[in-house]
Amino acid sequence: MGVPFEALLPYAVCIGMFGFSGATLSKIRAMQNGGKRARHSVDQWDRQMMDRDRRLTGFLRGQTDNVKAPAGFELSNPWRLERGYT
């Protein structure tokens, strides 16, 4: 005796909803990254370059091929200084 298809409908609905939510989250993450896939294994160098790109272009994953930096870039120093002891 075979399994009636009514028993498989809830499984199909669950699989469909998991697939839809996964695809939606993937699309939202890609939109947040400027249309690019998410980065993995980001180390300190990558974070520093991403911060520089954000300061240059305004986007975390943005890149530019301009030879000269935009006006005001020389004042956006990323170095964090600690206060001296008094």
Automatic annotation (TrEMBL):
<protein>
    <recommendedName>
        <fullName>NADH dehydrogenase [ubiquinone] 1 alpha subcomplex subunit 1</fullName>
    </recommendedName>
</protein>
<keyword id="KW-0813">Transport</keyword>
<feature type="transmembrane region" description="Helical">
    <location>
        <begin position="7"/>
        <end position="26"/>
    </location>
</feature>
<keyword id="KW-0472">Membrane</keyword>
<dbReference type="GO" id="GO:0005743">
    <property type="term" value="C:mitochondrial inner membrane"/>
</dbReference>
<dbReference type="InterPro" id="IPR017384">
    <property type="entry name" value="NADH_Ub_cplx-1_asu_su-1"/>
</dbReference>
<keyword id="KW-0249">Electron transport</keyword>
<comment type="function">
    <text>Accessory subunit of the mitochondrial membrane respiratory chain NADH dehydrogenase (Complex I), that is believed not to be involved in catalysis. Complex I functions in the transfer of electrons from NADH to the respiratory chain. The immediate electron acceptor for the enzyme is believed to be ubiquinone.</text>
</comment>
<keyword id="KW-0999">Mitochondrion inner membrane</keyword>
<dbReference type="Pfam" id="PF15879">
    <property type="entry name" value="MWFE"/>
</dbReference>
<keyword id="KW-1133">Transmembrane helix</keyword>
<comment type="similarity">
    <text>Belongs to the complex I NDUFA1 subunit family.</text>
</comment>
<keyword id="KW-0679">Respiratory chain</keyword>
<keyword id="KW-0812">Transmembrane</keyword>
<keyword id="KW-0496">Mitochondrion</keyword>
